[in-house]
Design goal:
It contains 9 helices and 8 strands. The protein is of the alpha/beta class. It has a single domain, classed as Alpha/Beta hydrolase fold, catalytic domain (Rossmann fold), CATH 3.40.50. The longest helix is centred in the middle third of the chain and has 14 residues.
Length: 248
């Protein structure tokens, strides 16, 4: 039997007046997990509905659509403006008076969470899955079977047509340049066979970070949410045990 409440679809507004759609699982806990999907993934995609539910046994959960994705407005800028998206969701959580706020990011969503937590030390924990050091160094070998095969298995027509990338490159903060400012306890997770954001990105960020930290590399793992889909039990235990280990 599922013990979580069905998500409430709501919208919050960024500083630059973009509507950001969220799924809010209000389960009655005093701590909240905010989940940030990566490029081409949404809060309502099957993978992120499952990941959201994974945390619901212990926490309230908020999962967002970044701008240019799903039911949010605007155009996706590949981490240039998405900090504002996460900020308005965090402020939504703060207004609910949660004792602890945890951020869980995947791929470019992980880049946004690392940048945000590096600038806001009140965040209580970060889980960064397949986080890139620098957007311009992402390998994105989409022709490899490890990449297109997983993309095909997750294909959802409605999600695909909801994606709106901004056509002009904008200046971006590089996670590797600000990781030294991260004070928040952080769990770094990557797949050794990730064809999109090679695992060395996560290793390099882990090595440069000075915060309390743990690194988990899945030897046969692929990219971002695929780590959950391929290793559900292990990934669930890893994340929940990490959050449970933090000083309350």
């Amino acid at each position: 039997m599922k013990i979580y409440n069905k998500p409430k679809g709501q919208k919050v507004i960024t500083k630059d007046n973009i509507n950001i759609a969220i799924n809010y699982y209000a389960n009655g806990f005093d701590e909240v997990v905010i989940i940030a999907p990566g490029w081409c993934m949404t809060k309502d995609s099957n993978a992120f509905l499952q990941i959201s539910e994974m945390f619901c046994s212990k926490y309230d959960v908020i999962t967002l659509d970044f701008r240019g994705h799903g039911k949010s407005g605007g155009w996706f800028t590949f981490t240039s403006k998405e900090i504002m998206d996460l900020d308005c969701v965090v402020k939504f959580a703060q207004n609910k008076n949660y004792k602890k706020i945890y951020l869980v990011g995947f791929s470019l969503g992980a880049a946004v969470t690392v940048i945000y937590a590096s600038q806001n030390n009140f965040i209580n924990s970060v889980i960064a899955v397949s986080v890139p050091t620098d957007f311009d160094k992402i390998e994105n070998k989409m022709w490899k079977k490890e990449a297109w095969g997983e993309t095909f298995k997750k294909f959802e027509l409605g999600r695909f047509f909801s994606i709106r990338p901004y056509p002009i490159p904008l200046k971006k903060i590089k996670p590797i340049n600000i990781i030294q400012n991260l004070k928040t306890p952080t769990l770094f997770v990557a797949g050794k066979k990730d064809p999109t954001v090679c695992f060395w990105h996560t290793e390099k960020l882990y090595e440069a970070a000075t915060c309390p930290k743990v690194l988990k590399i899945y030897e046969n793992g692929c990219h971002a949410e695929d780590l959950y889909l391929h290793y559900k039990e292990n990934f669930t235990t890893l994340c929940l045990d990490w959050l449970a280990s933090l000083v309350r």
